[in-house]
Specification:
The complex is a heterodimer of chains A (310) and B (415). Chain A has 11 helices and 12 strands. Chain A has helices spanning 13-19, 40-49, 68-78, 91-99, 117-125, 139-148, 170-178, 224-227, 242-261, 264-277, 295-309, and strands at 2-6, 23-27, 54-59, 85-88, 105-108, 130-132, 153-166, 190-194, 200-206, 209-218, 232-235, 282-283. Chain A has an 8-stranded parallel β-barrel. In chain A, strand 6, helix 6 (139-148) and strand 7 (153-166) form a beta-alpha-beta unit. In chain A, helix 9 (242-261) packs antiparallel against helix 10. The longest helix of chain A is centred in the last third of the chain and has 20 residues, at 242-261. Chain A is globular. Chain B is an alpha/beta fold and 415 residues long. Chain B has 2 domains: 5-189 and 234-321, Aldolase class I (TIM Barrel); 332-412, Elongation Factor Tu (Ef-tu), domain 3. Chain B contains 10 helices and 27 strands. Chain B has helices at residues 27-35, 59-71, 92-102, 112-120, 138-146, 160-169, 192-197, 244-250, 264-283, 293-299, and strands at 5-8, 11-14, 19-23, 40-44, 75-80, 106-109, 126-129, 151-153, 173-180, 213-218, 221-222, 231-232, 234-235, 237-239, 254-257, 306-307, 320-321, 332-341, 346-351, 355-356, 360-364, 371-374, 378-379, 385-386, 388-389, 395-399, 409-412. In chain B, the strands form 6 sheets. In chain B, strands 3-4-5-6-7-8-9-15 form an 8-stranded parallel β-barrel, surrounded by 5 helices. An 8-stranded antiparallel beta sheet of chain B has the order 22-21-27-18-19-26-23-24, with helices on one face. The chains are: A alpha/beta (310), B alpha/beta (415). Strand 8 (190-194) of chain A pairs antiparallel with strand 10 (213-218) of chain B, so a sheet runs across the interface.
């Protein structure tokens, strides 16, 4: 298992490499909700400067038709760099890469859709070469998929979880409709709470639309015994401060080293203590939870909720 | 570029009429949709379909639907559009084979595994890519074409300008939403319901959490105080009633109406309105006179305010529902005509909602313009005079001077 980190600051590359992390996801001009969007020149510089590292570029939005011509040119440019792969969710991106016979590792990352092994094996035949599993399925199911899929798989290891994205400018629209004053710019300062729920959401808006994430960070630092066979463990640095990103990356890389040295079971308690000291909200997401969808199950859940409220 | 028109006897006529595709949540709605002018109806099966709260169809229901549709040269599409999890994999092949044997025209699919096996099984039915995959561009359409797909249902985010390009080059049939509710987020990519309700949106359990009210916090300080408008992500419903001509001219293959959970009245009204509009435009596109009557008719069944969605570009605040839900008081559906006695001017009806003597009723029909009457004489099944109709589904008789037809419907006019 390798740690993959979404790079938030190029100045921290030395620190990450020093920790033993050598695989990075870079946000770019066409990325959807990246912690930082690197220009093409910056990506070129990074890939030249750190030639021993592996870089994926997130080309992971859903693209309108009018964007496609420019997107093709961008992918042409990326093909000239020392890029290992592309994270994508629009099959249009895969089609472009297939037509041009580029040799990127095409990591399918549709946020919500990679939920069974058969589908991923079909997509392998269509040109997908690795995949990022959905965050809304239990770990048990992710492990079943791992056994049956014949390509490298990435597991969301730590960080905020994607919840929804809209092409609309939902915050701007609300600001205009409500006439309330708040700052639209920035990724981390706005939160939502549904009137009938305690669950906190993070929301931000940019030129690509509106993005909603969990406020809590999913964590797997103490689950290495279960997740060790995944090819990649992803650390999402979106919405993390510089310090938090470094601390989290350091903890996971130390934990991985410890796991490889056979001391993890002894050390994990200390790692967890250090994680708790960061005082960031933590969560297990859906790793040990199930969603319901059948009418009878939903009714049962609604009834249970109603009874518990009385 | 698709050739959609031809000069016939010196007059341009549309020769490539789009399919009008309507939703149905049960057999009664399906039959009405077809009688009111749908060329095809999409339904959910009991298995592998979203909208688990719609009263989905058994295989026997689907069989009956196909037989009924054939009488009207209409088609049945079945949604198999869940995103499969490990525990949903069993029984798909058998289910698809049953649908094919029944004579279903198409399945609507979101999971590539179902796409693949449907093609490998060499079924007669077409395989359509669901809007759950949010397809917005030609390259993605080409990808699905290479997987053998017959049609792509575009994402609702596709603008008219992008649609023009797509229609110019699309290598497969294209289906475009013209009417109905809109997801505020990219379809298939929204997990709000999963996180807030533990209900899986991609397997039919969506709790529509986007339509809830939210508090917004900036740096942990509440932005919207008690009397302020709460944050909301609720979209107005889409209606492209003002742009049907432009869409026909592009050669869009299928016009989709959303709403498997909508009422019989809604389906009859919406289908009938678009049917009449499409037919009128296609008959004489160069001299077609758009008027407000089509929109007015739709509003009688719309329970949310209408907007153009992404047709022009990014929807603004005016395309969202905020503090006031902006719901329309729909005209109440009160009767369905079962028969008409032309000698006595007496209509046999099935009561659907409360009405009484003195109420003004509007009759609408797929076959004639709307007509109005005031209820003067009302009889029960034993032909005894009554004053009020207050038992749902009761068979009654009402005097209507103008001739009406079986399956015409009546709605109470709000004064």
């Amino acid at each position: 298992m390798k740690i993959v980190l979404s790079l938030n600051q190029k100045e921290r590359m030395y620190d990450y490499i020093d920790m033993g992390i050598d695989t990075f996801v870079l946000g770019g001009q066409y990325s959807f909700h990246a912690p930082y969007c690197f220009s093409y020149a910056e990506i070129e510089l990074l890939t030249n400067q750190y030639a021993d590292c592996y870089f994926y570029v997130a080309v992971n939005a859903l693209y309108d038709q009018y964007v496609i011509a420019d997107l093709e040119k961008y992918i042409d440019q990326l093909s000239k760099l020392n890029i290992k792969g592309i994270l994508f969710q629009d099959f249009g991106v895969l089609q472009i890469v297939k037509e041009k016979h580029y040799h990127f590792d095409m990591m399918y990352d549709p946020e919500t859709l990679n939920t069974n092994a058969n589908t991923l094996n079909v997509l392998k035949e269509e040109g997908v070469t690795s995949a990022f599993l959905s965050k809304v399925i239990p770990l048990e199911e992710q492990l079943m998929i791992l056994k049956e899929v014949h390509m490298p798989l990435m597991l969301h290891g730590h960080g905020v979880e994607y919840i929804a994205a809209s092409k609309r400018t939902l915050l701007s629209n609300y600001k205009e409709a409500s006439l309330l004053e708040f700052d639209l710019y920035g990724q981390t300062h706005l939160k939502l709470k549904a009137k009938n729920s305690d669950y906190l959401l993070r929301i931000f808006e940019d030129e690509k639309g509106t993005h909603i994430f969990s406020d809590t960070r999913l964590y797997t630092l103490d689950l290495f015994n279960q997740i060790q066979e995944f090819d990649y463990l992803y650390i999402e640095t979106l919405m993390m401060s510089e310090g938090e990103a470094i601390e989290v990356a350091s903890l996971y890389s130390d934990a991985l080293k410890s796991f490889k040295n056979g001391t993890y079971n002894k050390d994990v308690k200390e790692y967890m203590n250090l994680l708790y000291r960061l005082k960031t909200p933590l969560d297990r997401g859906f790793l040990f939870d199930q969603t319901v969808y059948k009418l009878e199950d939903m009714r049962k859940m609604d009834n249970e909720k109603r009874e518990s409220n009385h | 570029m698709r050739n959609v028109s031809q000069i016939i006897n010196g007059k341009r006529k549309i020769i490539k009429k789009p399919e009008l595709l309507a939703p149905a949540g049960n057999l009664e709605k399906l039959k009405v949709a077809i009688m009111y002018g749908a060329d095809a109806v999409f339904v959910g099966g009991k298995e592998f379909s979203l909208r688990s709260q719609a009263s989905n169809f058994t295989l026997d229901d689907i069989k009956e639907a196909v037989i009924f549709a054939k009488q009207y040269h209409a088609h049945i599409h079945v949604t198999c559009n869940i995103i499969l999890h490990q525990d949903n994999l069993e029984g798909i092949k058998e289910y698809l084979q049953c649908l094919d044997d029944i004579g279903v025209t198409a399945i609507i699919v979101a999971d590539p595994y179902i796409m693949k096996i449907a093609k490998e099984m060499n079924l007669h039915l077409e395989v359509h890519v669901s809007t759950q995959l949010s397809t917005l561009n030609l390259k993605a359409i080409e990808f699905y074409k290479e997987m053998g797909m017959d049609r792509v249902v575009l994402g609702r985010e596709v603008t008219y300008e992008d649609l023009k390009t797509i229609m110019h080059y699309a290598p497969v049939d294209v289906e475009y939403f013209i009417h109905g509710a809109m997801c505020i987020h990219y379809s298939g990519r929204c997990m709000l319901s999963n996180y807030l309700s533990r209900r899986d949106a991609n397997r039919g359990g969506c709790s529509q959490s986007c339509r809830w009210y939210y508090d917004l916090y900036e740096n942990d300080m509440l932005v919207n105080r008690e009397d302020d408008m709460p944050f909301s992500m609720s979209s107005k419903d889409m209606s492209l009633i003002d742009h049907i001509g432009e869409l026909i001219e592009l050669g869009v293959d299928s016009f989709k109406i959303e709403g498997r959970m909508k009422s019989l009245h809604y389906i009859a009204t919406v289908v009938s309105t678009y049917r009449k509009l499409i037919d009128a435009y296609c008959d004489d596109p160069d001299y077609f006179q758009p008027d407000e009557s089509y929109r007015d008719e739709l509003l009688k069944a719309a329970n949310r305010a209408l907007c153009h969605g992404f047709f022009y570009d990014h929807p603004t605040k005016d395309e969202q529902l905020f503090f006031l839900r902006d719901e329309h008081p729909t005209q109440e559906f009160v009767m369905r005509i079962l028969d008409y006695d032309t000698q006595n001017h007496l209509a046999k009806i099935e009561q659907r909602n409360y009405f009484k003597v003195g109420d003004k009723i509007e009759i609408f029909s797929p076959h004639h313009p709307n007509l109005f009457f005031t209820v003067k004489k009302l009889y029960n099944e034993d032909r005894e005079i009554i004053e009020v109709a207050n038992h749902p589904m009761e068979v009654l008789y009402v005097q209507i001077d103008e001739e009406v037809l079986p399956n015409d419907m009546g709605r109470k006019v709000i004064r």
